[in-house]
Amino acid sequence: MFATNKKPTYPIVDKLRRYLVQHRRELALPVIYQDLMRFQGSVPLLDANGRETLWETVFYDHNIRPELFESLTYIYALLKVDGDLSVMKHLYVDRVDYCTFGNSCPFRIRIVNSYNDNQDYYYIKKADASRIYGLELEHLLSPNRMNYFSSGDTLIEEHVVGIPGDIFIGNWLESNRLKPVRVAKELVKFNERCFIRLLGDMRSYNFVVDVTPDFEETQIRIRPMDFDQQSYSGIKNFYLPQFFRENNKLALYCIKHLNPTTAYQYQREEQTLIFKRMNIIRERLAALLQAMSADQISTPEKVAQLGESLTEHYQNDRFLECQNMGEIVSESLNTMVNDLNRPGKRRKPLLDWLPAIRGDQKELL
Q1: Would the pTM of this model clear 0.90, i.e. be above it?
Q2: CA torsion, points 87, 88, 89, 91, in degrees to nearest 10?
Q3: What confidence tier does 266 reach under pLDDT thresholds 50, 70, 90?
Q4: Angstrom distance (rounded) from CA 31 to CA 39
Q5: How far is the C-alpha of 298 from the C-alpha of 301, rounded, in Å?
Q6: Phi, psi of 347, deg, nearest 5
Q7: Do 93 and 236 fall within a single domain?
Q8: SS3 62
Q9: Do 203 and 333 belong to one domain?
Q10: Residue 37: other Cβ atoms inside 10 A
């Protein structure tokens, strides 16, 4: 198993900041990340079964707590209703949790409705350019809308609702409430979305599964919730969720319920959807990729390693000319578009399930 070294935090450069301002992703806030670090103490947060989690609940001095929590409620209003507090006077901050696991060291804010005790969450994190590129690419190229904004070195993110992937694998994957082919189809599509736009480290605990009852059968959609590893690693398989040990049951599930021809059909369907989204947001995507291509969010060694792997995979020498990860993402999208424009020319499918079929753990990350 390859260890995931802690990725450095990359600052938001001027070109990316201008993009965020232009698209109303940069806002002035009454509270920034460092303000939340002023907590006086903490206790471990337990789950429903009484086990410790990776989170701890933090406490603030009574002199700053009222103003701080009022500001946190306002930030929630910015996320949901563009800052209109008149429709949110009945909301209050019930709890602030802190997690030291991962790169962004997030605070999770729990908001409660005083009328019906309904609760919601959002996150305050250290701003990282990699994560912002990941959030924005997900927003533009996937079926999922990402609600977030930055303020200097602070990042605010809406909670992504769904069943954590590891819990879904353990409790839902073999459920008779789900049609296996529909689950396998979404796994193929998710795998494809991650690879095309180079979102890495999609282990089962870094994505959620949104389960939606339909009038005939239940539908599912897999949504990433961690974007720290957007275009950082030099390992090609790091961008294919099928190759993580934590996801091995999902790969075997696809093999059981899909044949290669059907899997390839679903890949092409997802590529076509991405292509249609690219056409709709052409100028905005171009501006984002220009900012990303002028940025350095990985090391030259990793860029060269990934370029060589993708050159071999696609039989496309243009990846060798890429100087940074932004250029590699751009070339990946261009390669997909060129492939779609050549009907009948079938390239090597992205989904190679042989390691899972053989049970070859050496191929898994």
Answers
A1: yes
A2: 160
A3: very high
A4: 14
A5: 8
A6: -85, 175
A7: no
A8: coil
A9: yes
A10: 11
- 183 and 197 in a common domain: yes
> Could you give the CA distance from residue 131 to residue 195 in angstroms, rounded to a whole number?
16
- The answer to whether residue 6 is domain-embedded is no
For 123-187, give the DSSP string: EEEE--HHHHHHHHHHHHHSS----EEEETTEEEEE---SEEHHHHHHHTTT-TTS-HHHHHHHH
- The DSSP 8-state label assigned to residue 204 in this structure reads G
Same-domain status, 134 and 177 = no
Choosing from 133, 158, 183, the residue where a domain stops is: 158
Q: Please, which pLDDT band fits residue 2 given cuts at 50, 70 and 90?
A: very low
**Same domain assignment for residues 352 and 302:** yes
**Per-residue pLDDT reduced to its tens digit, 61-81:** 999 999 999 999 999 999 999
> What domain range includes position 63?
14-158
Q: Evaluate whether residue 7 is within a structural domain.
A: no
**161-217 residue pLDDT tens:** 999 999 999 999 988 888 899 999 999 999 999 999 999 999 999 999 999 888 778
238 lies in the same domain as 284: yes
C-beta of residue 21 within 8 angstroms of C-beta of residue 150: no
Number of domains comprising the chain: 2
Task: Measure Cα distances from 136 to 19, 93, 336 in Å.
Answer: 11, 28, 19
5 found inside a domain: no
> What tokens appear for 214 in the block?
């339909």
